[in-house]
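In the design runs reported in the main text, the only information available to the sequence generator was the tokenized backbone. The following block is the verbatim input for one such run; it is reproduced so that readers can re-run the procedure and compare outputs position by position.
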């Protein structure tokens, strides 16, 4: 019974958050539509913030940690193999993030469309910052190996990397069927990879 009640709260809350955003969502309306008393709700969560976090934190953390794991795996390769393996690892990351996000698309729609005003409001931005950090490490190593990669201006670099992540998550926002979405995710990677290879001059 408690499990059914909690599921009902989550279903109503998800609709409320998606329609109005976190800030505009009414906890009173969620409680009312879920058919529970305020006291019963507080038996599950202390606040609207805690409710939202319960619905998105685990998937958000998984993607961040999976991204970190792939970076660590890549950096354990011999450095002389970095140039030829970067594209493979970046494609693996893009497709794995897409696959996981598709499996948890309700949570990711909340993250992407309704999280402003919560600790998750910078979800994509934080992924971009991680990508920039590893990219700079990669640049320095490529220079040490004799390559002369293009020195990106910070604004341009941030914009390009943001574009790739945003394009990937658009597949979730627009509920693209899995096979089509996976194909798009791979093509998004290939498109950006061609651009990186062009300006980094690693071939």
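Verbatim output:
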């Amino acid at each position: 019974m408690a499990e059914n009640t909690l599921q009902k709260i989550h279903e109503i809350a998800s609709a409320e958050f998606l329609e109005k955003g976190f800030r505009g969502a009414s906890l009173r309306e969620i409680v009312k539509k879920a058919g529970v008393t305020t006291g019963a709700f507080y038996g599950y969560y202390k606040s609207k913030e805690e409710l939202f976090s319960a619905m998105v934190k685990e998937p958000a953390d998984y993607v961040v940690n999976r991204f970190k794991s792939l970076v660590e795996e890549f950096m354990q390769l011999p450095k002389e193999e970095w140039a030829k393996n970067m594209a493979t690892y970046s494609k693996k990351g893009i497709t794995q993030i897409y696959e996981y996000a598709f499996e948890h698309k309700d949570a990711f729609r909340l993250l992407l469309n309704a999280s402003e005003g919560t600790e998750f409001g910078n979800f994509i931005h934080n992924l971009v910052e991680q990508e920039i950090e590893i990219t700079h490490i990669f640049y320095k190593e490529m220079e040490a190996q004799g390559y002369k990669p293009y020195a990106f201006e910070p604004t341009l670099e941030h914009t390009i990397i943001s574009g790739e992540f945003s394009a990937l998550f658009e597949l979730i926002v627009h509920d693209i069927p899995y096979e089509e979405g996976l194909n798009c995710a791979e093509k998004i990677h290939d498109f950006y990879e061609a651009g990186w290879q062009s300006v980094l001059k690693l071939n």
